[in-house]
Amino acid sequence: MDEQALAELRETVAISHRLLYRTGLGTTRGHTSARISWTGERAGEGDGASGGVDAFVIKPWPHIQMHRVRADDLIVMDFDGNILGAEGRRITKVSEWPIHAEIYRAHPGVGAVIHTHQKWATMMGFAGATILPLLDPELSAAVAHEPVVFDEDKALIRSVEQGKAVAGRMHGANACHLQNHGMVFTGPNVETATVDAIATEHLAEMTWRARLIGSPEALPSLALRPALDRRARGEIPESWLHYWKWVDANPESLRPRSADI
After folding, report:
1. Sheet containing 182-187: order of strands
2. Which CATH number does the domain housing residue 52 bear?
3. What is the pLDDT of residues 169-227, one digit of tens each?
4. Helix, coil or strand: residue 131
5. Phi/psi class of residue 127: alpha, beta or left (left: φ > 0; alpha: ψ in -120 to 50)?
6. Which helix (H) or strand (E) holds 203?
7. How far apart are CA 6 and CA 210, in angstroms?
8. Cα atoms found within 13 Å of the Cα of residue 250, Cβ hemisphere only
9. Which of 115, 148, 182, 258 has its CA 20 to 30 A from that of 44?
10. Model pTM above 0.70
């Protein structure tokens, strides 16, 4: 990955944090990461080293308000939890880095991981309830495959063993309830994972409210197929390109337009 591509990816990860805050999915706690290939020299392997190491970009500790995250705030970590290329900065890693590292290690097709404490989706996980794909195929693709549940450990996922267990539950799934804790989302890229997290929260609330007054029916799988195919190809969601990046630049507009998710 060249310098320009890395800079662009850092900015995308920073935007993801800001959008998670602005849509109510996180405040200070929660993190988005993106997989990268970190070159040997940067990884501390010595001058002239060839190749690279598997790594990811993520927010460091201590936490700051997610709407304040900027590209320069982010750090690079390898899958063993080492901070790479710190260049003298006195920083440390988020305690739940094993969520990200072990998912990347176990699932080569995952390009981004998000962990949130979002309200509605987490509540559905508490209740063991299914979040239904109720409206708009582009939105509903996020829950076309029901989120899996990790209930082996209800503590923070801070150890490699815990991270491996979460990653093991996520084979074939792009979302996971960390029961009594929060959510994990994966995607081929940051944009898809972010839109999935936002859409899942909206659909969780719609499912809960619809069940109060009736028996909502999910969209048929045929209607979801085109959106799922685009996701499988790693296409950037149109909503990211034409709406969410605009929201990041114009955050005051989000509240009156929230029904347009």
Report:
1. 83-84, 75-78, 52-58, 31-39, 112-116, 182-187, 175-178, 148-150
2. 3.40.225.10
3. 998 899 999 988 899 999 999 999 999 999 999 999 999 999 999 999 999 999 999 99
4. coil
5. alpha
6. helix 190-213
7. 43
8. 11
9. 115
10. yes
